[in-house]
Amino acid sequence: MSGLKIRKVAGALGAEISGVDLSADLPDAVIEEIRAAFVHHQVVFFRDQALTPEAQLAFGRRFGPLNIHPYVAGMPGHPEVMEIVKEPGDKVNFGGGWHSDMSFLENPSIGSILYAVEIPEWGGDTLFASQAAAYEALSPGLKATLESLNAVHSAGREYSSQGHSAQKRASMKVVEAEGAVGEFIHPVVKVHPETGRKALYVNPAFTMRIDGWSKRESKPLLDFLFEHSRYEAFTCRFAWSAGSVAFWDNRSVWHFALNDYPGQRRHMRRVTVDAWPATVGKPALQTAEGVT
């Protein structure tokens, strides 16, 4: 027995896992159990961890190759580690809007692992929204329509000089992306490769328009989906403490870092997990039946 304890935290998504030290060289069976919970619950949380950047990298690599963000500089010597810092005098936070990490890439990441180094005395929670639950709540007719559509994603708006993320360029070394980004097309409804569960795959930060439609034509449908997808019943909320970890599935989850702690410092570290290359032949886990 691994000794893991897995407790659901909300109806739509989210579970807290205890009984594990993520800095240890964990057996493959424990990693498989964590991955099964991650896939099933869509976001999993851990408390009271002590992760050096090296330990966080090692844990992340157990799930796939790690991403180097194209517009945010990583730690010196550890380009895969993104330090997300809001200083007491900063007005804007990084990640302060609903989004799915890295959907603007041709091959988006599968998950993000965020570790709390320093948290404010109050505030700074993160919200998560299940896009699988959002899809499943739609009518059969709209589901059928959406399954025939693709959407265009790009970092061009969010990382432009006026974009929310680019406004963190001073404290986080964010590069403005104007004229330097491409557009990539992804299905509006993504089928999860490890469970077969369908989820909406559009988000306010990086989805530009429906493929083949103008921005004007796309706006009413996207606005409806963006509003629908953050309905409270599809969400959970995580209150951070120093040493906490959240690991969420970017294939089916939005998140939103709340900016409600003026005058305080918040310091997080993130590594982002990509999919195993097809040539590696890493076996996909099946649905985690029985994980609660």
- From the N-terminal CA to the C-terminal CA, the straight-line distance is 16 Å
Mean pLDDT: 90
- Output the structural class: alpha+beta
Low-confidence stretches: 279-292
Number of DSSP E strands: 15
CATH homologous superfamily assignment:
Clavaminate synthase-like
Within the largest sheet, what's the order of strands?
Answer: 1-2-3-13-5-15-4
CATH architect. name: 4-Layer Sandwich
The shape is globular
**Strand percentage, roughly?**
15-25%
Biggest sheet record: 7 strands, mixed
Helix content: 10-25%
Number of helices: 6
Might you state the CATH topology name? Double-stranded beta-helix
Q: Class in CATH?
A: Alpha Beta
Order of helices and strands: EEHEHEEEHHEHEEEEHEEEE
EC number: 1.14.11.17
Domain TauD/TfdA-like: 6-272
Keywords: Dioxygenase, Iron, Metal-binding, Oxidoreductase
Protein name: Taurine dioxygenase
Question: Which short descriptors sum up this protein?
Answer:
iron; alpha+beta; three-stranded antiparallel beta sheet; dioxygenase; AtsK-like; Double-stranded beta-helix; 24% strand; 292 residues; EC 1.14.11.17; seven-stranded mixed beta sheet; disordered C terminus; 15 strands
Summarize the structure in words.
By secondary structure, the chain is of the alpha+beta class. It has a single domain, classed as 4-Layer Sandwich (Double-stranded beta-helix), CATH 3.60.130. Helices cover 19% and strands 24% of the residues. The strands form 4 sheets. It has a 7-stranded mixed sheet, covered by helices on one side. It has a 3-stranded antiparallel sheet with strand order 12-6-14. Helix 1 links the parallel strand 2 (15-18) and strand 3 (43-46). The longest helix is centred in the C-terminal third of the chain and has 15 residues, at 215-229. The chain starts with a strand and ends in a 19-residue tail after the last strand. The model is unreliable at 279-292 (pLDDT under 50).
